[in-house]
Design a protein that fits this description.
With about 120 residues, the protein is α+β, with helices and mostly antiparallel strands. The protein contains four helices and six strands. It has a single domain, classed as Alpha-Beta Complex (Ribosomal Protein L22, Chain A). A hairpin with a 2-residue loop joins strand 3 and strand 4.
């Protein structure tokens, strides 16, 4: 299958989980970057709360990097990550769902990596 690379943008981000412990301890800081839904989702987990905040941030950053060539005024706070019924992350930008953006997340004990692919 041939894919025209002019129709695809890719963004990637890697983050260290320990940096996001501050959001677990201080929700005021979390509210500056994360949506209410992202905060509720992360805080609902009994363990590895910082890992969820890290994953949300890495996903947002990867999406931002993939879209930055087309949307130069896009802010990280304009991007929201939610999950569908089977747990797949889905992207919202300014409250609008974008099904042409796919995200893949992976993590180790210390790091989270996110890749975003945008197809036009």
């Amino acid at each position: 299958m041939y894919i025209n690379k002019n129709n695809i943008e890719i963004g990637i981000d890697i983050e260290e989980i320990i940096r996001f412990n501050i959001y677990v301890k201080n929700i005021i800081y979390a509210q500056r970057i994360f949506t209410k839904e992202e905060i509720s989702y992360a805080m609902s987990k009994k363990y590895k709360i910082a890992q969820y905040f890290t994953a949300f941030f890495a996903a947002k950053e990867a999406v931002w990097k993939a879209l930055n060539n087309h949307y130069t005024k896009l802010l990280i706070t304009d991007i929201a990550i939610q999950h569908n019924k089977i747990g797949k992350p889905i992207v919202y930008i300014k409250s609008q769902h974008y099904d042409n953006i796919d995200i893949s997340l992976s993590h180790t004990k210390s790091y989270v990596v996110a890749v975003a692919i945008v197809c036009y």
